[in-house]
Amino acid sequence: MPPHKIIIDTDPGQDDAVAILLALASPEEIDLLGITCVAGNVPLDLTSKNARIVCELAGKTNVKVFAGCDRPMGRDLVTAEHVHGKTGLDGPNLPDPVMPLAQGDAVDFIIEQLREFAPGTVTLCPLGPLTNIATAFEKAPDIKKRVAKIVLMGGGYFEGGNITPTAEFNIYVDPHAADIVFKSGVPIVVMPLDVTHKALVTKSRNDAFRALQTSVGIAVAEMTDFFERFDKEKYGSEGAPLHDPCVTAYLINPDLFTGRHINVEIETQSELTMGMTVADWWGVTDRAPNATFMGDIDADGFFDLLTDRLARL
After folding, report:
1. 132-146 residue pLDDT tens
2. Its pTM surpasses 0.70
3. Domain 4-310 architecture
4. CA-to-CA dists, residue 190 to 19, 155, 182, 291, 305, angstroms
5. pLDDT tens digits, one per residue of 257-292
6. Between the CA of residue 209 and those of 34, 91, 176, 194, what are the distances in Å?
7. What is the C-alpha separation between 238 and 226, in angstroms, rounded?
8. Catalytically annotated residues
9. How far apart are CA 192 and CA 140, in angstroms?
10. In the chain, where are the structural domains located?
């Protein structure tokens, strides 16, 4: 089976960084066409800088990195420096990137790539707010039928929200974009908090990263050392959840995850529940299923895969 052609759409973020590293370490399964950056965890100038820092850390300076939308479609930008630090990649001491941003706009790159390759051959992998993806769908509606699938990190059902009581951060930042994407008709696979909160970087798992004794392994360990302080205090958990690598792990080994094909709607009206992913897990409505919503993960298998692949870089 040929590797998945993918575009990673991202707002790095330590966990985004690990997701990118996993993709770069897995050429047998993943053909990374490019990275498109969006404002989210930190503003766009930092997310587009951080993506290039990660590529250089992996020694993959030929990856095209594009800057995209610097604000949500219909709201003011909300960022998450309280989790990720002022740079978004606080923890390791990584040098500023030398590689330049690719010429052009992230949204145009998404459109061009979907038109260039045969329909059903390019997968979109959003790790942050869905602004770039929704903007591309609005600008070029023809591309929706060309997308193989969207595998995204966002939302939650049993776990509720992590930025409000009902909303996960990525969806909350741009719920209008999420609404467009979930109504697009494109096949969608969702990695919600219900899954990612089971992918915890415990001390032994982080020690395994550090024990690789490579620049990548040490940097990943230092990233999770930094941002786990927030989640451990908030949830009383053993470590930080590695949200975004679940997306790339799914492309490599989907058997690590289980879920249901259900209807998911996005709340865009109520400030009380803005950005909520209303997931019909129990099938109590007659709304047509539009997403495969994952509910569980083989966490040991996930971390074995992640550690094995990071060792390649």
Report:
1. 999 999 999 999 999
2. yes
3. Alpha-Beta Complex (3.90)
4. 15, 8, 10, 7, 20
5. 999 999 999 999 999 999 999 999 999 999 999 999
6. 26, 14, 37, 24
7. 14
8. 243
9. 27
10. 4-310
